[in-house]
Amino acid sequence: MKNSKILLRSAVLIFASLNIMLLTSCGKAKDQVKISVWSDERNAPVIEEGIEKFKELHKKEVDIEYTISLEGEVTIKDMVLSDVENAADLYAFADDQFNDLYKAGALLEITDNVDGVLAEVGGREAGVADIVTVDGKMYAYPETAGNGYFLYYNKAYFTEDDVKSLDKILEICRKNNKKFTYDFSSGWYLYGFFRGAGMTLGLNEDGTANICDWNRTDGEYTGSDVAEALLKITEDPGFISLGDDGFLAEAENGNVIAGVNGPWNAEKIQSFWGDDYAAAKLPTYTVKGNQVQMYSFMGYKLLGINSTTKNPEWCMKLAEYLTNEENQLKRFEVIGESPVNVKAAQDERVKAAPAVAALAEQSRFSNVQSVAAPFWDASQKLGVTLAAGNPDGRDLQELLDDMVKEATAKAE
């Protein structure tokens, strides 16, 4: 009996030693992780395929059990804020929901490879970086570039180099007795000139009024410098200010050969210009003798991580993977969403879809729309006056002061 106990004890010790040796040789045991995801119906197949590939890449490190639930991007914010602790670990949302989610503490601060992630979308100076960062800290992953505007042009008249400069575009239009169009009656488009020259527009901290310095009198460029540049454009024989319907009508009859508009009119413009249809980021324009890159408003889709997740490290790794170059290209192929990733935007497959490629390229020079209602009427008055050539000869600083006063009035 005594010998049996000794043998049993020896067997246990040997078994324990073998376990220790196995753990030592194989490293730590694999993580067991459960991750829930909320996504809209169109994006869900891309998310699922991405997670499966991620699981395969990390199968020696982690076992991931995941669920994907369909939630519309419009309602995700309300779903998360109604019960943050029981919301999904990862959720996709539109950029205009970021501030409310951040202020509610529903977004995890991203601490893994932040500079690397931002570099992939153009760096900390890119427009989308302004959206996903607060005080230099990152709280969501850029997923796609969506609603915005860019340049359409007819390749029968312009080369790729020609359309880099608005001066050159106007010169070619003049020589051919044709037109370039830009909608000066809309503050949405007018923003591109002022923001390009370094001026700001946005909401104050409590969201009750706009902050706007389009009338500034110091800095590298003043508001009057920009207004003078815009008057020079509107006085050019190669220019015409047109809205959507006018653009389409004049492009169809051949009078307009270049213009700024959004992706919603891509198919129609392509049908008018056929094989000569092309698109690019917005050009530079001349302010005080210098070339200034035009900016735009842009809508983005983001992927956030719930601040209450039990698996922050793996959620960050997975979210970065789901929004990387490969998966942004997959998203483009499956649902036609424009990449915000710089390398993905240069992919030949994206370039083959001119409007998507142009939108992706323009995303580096764009900002999210965060504007209170008083701006729209105020900017429209300014734009219409400039498009008409300032017919009453009003002092430009006075025009800008009046515009800013109205635009920054408290929203009702």
What does this protein structure show overall?
The structure is a single chain. The strands form five sheets. Strands 1, 2, 3, 6, 16 and 17 form a six-stranded mixed beta sheet that branches. Helix content is 44%, strand content 20%. It is of the alpha/beta class and 412 residues long. 44% of the residues are buried. The longest helix is centred in the first third of the chain and has 25 residues, at 2-26. Strand 9 (201-203) and strand 10 form a beta hairpin. The chain has helices spanning 2-26, 44-57, 73-82, 98-103, 114-120, 127-132, 166-175, 187-196, 223-234, 244-252, 266-273, 312-322, 325-335, 342-345, 348-351, 354-362, 374-387, 396-407, and strands at 31-39, 62-70, 90-94, 133-134, 137-138, 141-148, 150-154, 179-181, 201-203, 210-212, 239-240, 256-261, 277-280, 284-287, 290-293, 296-305, 366-367. The protein is globular and about 75 Å long. The protein folds into two domains: 31-147 and 298-367, D-Maltodextrin-Binding Protein, domain 2; 149-297 and 370-407, Periplasmic binding protein-like II (D-Maltodextrin-Binding Protein, domain 2), CATH 3.40.190. It has 18 helices and 17 strands. Helix 17 (374-387) runs antiparallel to helix 18.
